[in-house]
Amino acid sequence: MLAILELAARHGRMCLVLGLLAGLFLPGVAADLRPRLPQMVAFLLFLTAFRIGPRNAVAGLRALRRTAAMALILQLVLPLAAVAALLATGLASAPLGIAAVLMLAAPSVTGAPNFALLSGHDPAPALRLVVLGTALLPLTALPVFLTLPELGGLTPVLGAAGRLLAVILGATAAAFALRRWRFPRLTPRATTALDGATAIALAVIVVALMSAIAPAFAEAPRELLFWMIAAFALNFGFQIAAYSLLADRFPRAEAVAVSIIAGNRNIALFLVALPPQVTDPLLVFIGCYQIPMYLTPILLGRLYRSGYQ
């Protein structure tokens, strides 16, 4: 088993590709895995927090104010700017506009620390932004939902955010406690094994998230192509724009973390919180959105490793 985990660690980005392919070509498996998403996400968070450990997490608390500022910019300033643009152009009810606003209003995907790790950087800054951004969601979502009534009611969103925060804090606390009392220091081989387990967990999760892709390809390929282009444009566009602004201003690991999260948001959070008339047209977009998300370490890894000269 250890040899398999080490192999997965060496080929972590390939594991993501295999997960994407399985999600595309094994729709039955994707449908079967989808109900297990909450447990899989909690396990992924546990692995990530366990790898980082409480010592490294506490060492980064001095950056808490900057982390909070970035979370507010990502989850409040950007979506409000998008709402203003949509209202000014009369596109507030367009499915693509609603998808963009929901994406920007959402906190980071829970896999962001793992994407940072697979891009060759410390995952701790991304984990801090995952936790803090989720905690701030009740505050940041309120103005966005009040200014764009097409999104539906706010109360279910706050409930979903509370549940997600509870999962994040519970998994992180359990991992930190285990590290603190049983494994205060990890050997290099143990760290490699954890990286392999994380890569495998990410690959399994993406299979579940892509359950809507295969039916869309069979029934409406042109619509699928439209949403695929939109997903790549929004995801990679915000990542590249953020990194171009932050690469020379922030420490590299923080710049990478913020940039990854700028484009990779937990829009699926709203599936359980908003009315079906809002979310049903977005299911294909959410499925397409997983592809640039999981290709981030592969297609943007070179950018994040080299930076701007």
UniProtKB/TrEMBL annotation:
Gene3D superfamilies: 1.20.1530.20. InterPro entries: Na+/solute_symporter_sf (IPR038770). It comes from Jhaorihella thermophila. This is Predicted Na+-dependent transporter. The keyword Membrane applies. Keywords: Membrane, Transmembrane, Transmembrane helix. The keyword S-adenosyl-L-methionine does not apply. The chain crosses the membrane at residues 40-58, 70-92, 98-117, 129-148, 160-178, 199-218, 224-243, 255-276, 282-304. Signal peptide: none annotated.
